Each structure stands twice: as structure tokens, then as C-alpha cells.
Amino acid sequence: MGMLQAGIIPVTPFQQNCTVLFDPDTKEGVVVDPGGDVETIVKVVEENGFKIKEIWLTHGHLDHAGGARDLKAALGIDIVGPHKDDLPLLQRIETQQLKYGITGLKNVEPDRWLEDGGKVSFGNHEFEVYHTPGHAPGHVIYVNRAQNFAHLGDVLFNGSIGRTDLPGGDHDQLMASIRDKVLPLGDDVGFICGHGPGSRIGDERRNNPFLQGI
Residue 197 in 3-state DSSP? Predict the structure, then answer.
């Protein structure tokens, strides 16, 4: 098995970071948060010869989960995550998209819900699952200890934090998730987030204005 690698495919008008996590030696991998533009995602998968094992969702907002059902159908694979508390969001994707003038996204329910303390994997690459509510009630993050890497979805960004003004959002809960689940992962952990460039937890601890005094 090779070192874990990641490729980002910006999808939907929200430019959400749909992420392919993969092993460069075996080409096995997973797609995290296929929010839409499924034809583009499938094209990337086919052109690179990826053997996608599962779809992993961080949470149920439309820009992260709206393409999951179609990608499942295209690739014949299971959808895993998020936490079951996001079921109401996943059931409202088709309604929510109308507010933003988007079409083609679909409601979805995963084949398997995830819980805090669970594990997911592909090949020899294992990830710990943490339930991190606040941006969304059922938000989860994926942490690969072996390579000091995490996918944080919309919990923490480079220089910012996830919105809490959307349905199910709770600012105090989000800050508790960051304080109790994310920051203890360690300053050396690099992460991909749901939008924009990634960062390292230590850099955010020192420089992110939302984390000062946390």
C-alpha cells in the first residue's frame, strides 16, 4: 500500500470540495461528499482508473450530499455516513435546492450510519470517525492517524469555521466540537475541508481568529 493521497473536485455553485481519497499503488479509494456534478466525478474516476469502494458523507447539506444517490447508482457502491441526526437534512435536499436555483440534486439515505468512535477504511487505510455537531446535527469527520490527516468537512476551515445560521446549526455546539474533538487531534494534523484550501490544525489554533481563547 502506498501513502494516502487526495484529489479535490470542486462541485456545485458552492464550489464544494468533493474529495477522492485513494491509494496510489492500488488505485483503491473513496469519494467524500459528492454534492453534485456527478458526471464530472465519474469522469475523473474513470480517467484515473480509481477503484472506488464507498461514498463517505460528512453531513447532509445539499452541496455535500446531493449527488450521492446518483454516484451510488453510477458506481454500484454503498453510501456511508453521516450520523443519523442528519436524516432530516438528507430528506430535504430536493426542497432546499429550489431556494438556490439548483436542480438535479436528490434526497438520499445512507446504507450505513456512522457513530462517534466508529471506524471506516479502504485497503489498509483506516479512519477514525468523530461526531462533530454544530454546523449540522449529524456532522462527522474522518481522521487517519497513520498519516496525520483529517477530512473535517464544514467544521473548521482555513481561517474560519463552519456556518451555524443554517437549519440545525448551533454555534456553541460547533465550538465545543472544535475544542473537544478537532484541536486534540494535534497541531501536526493536516486537513482538507469542505470549501477552500486546507490547512494544519496547529496553524488554525495559532492564527484562526475564531479559535482565539477557545
Answer: coil
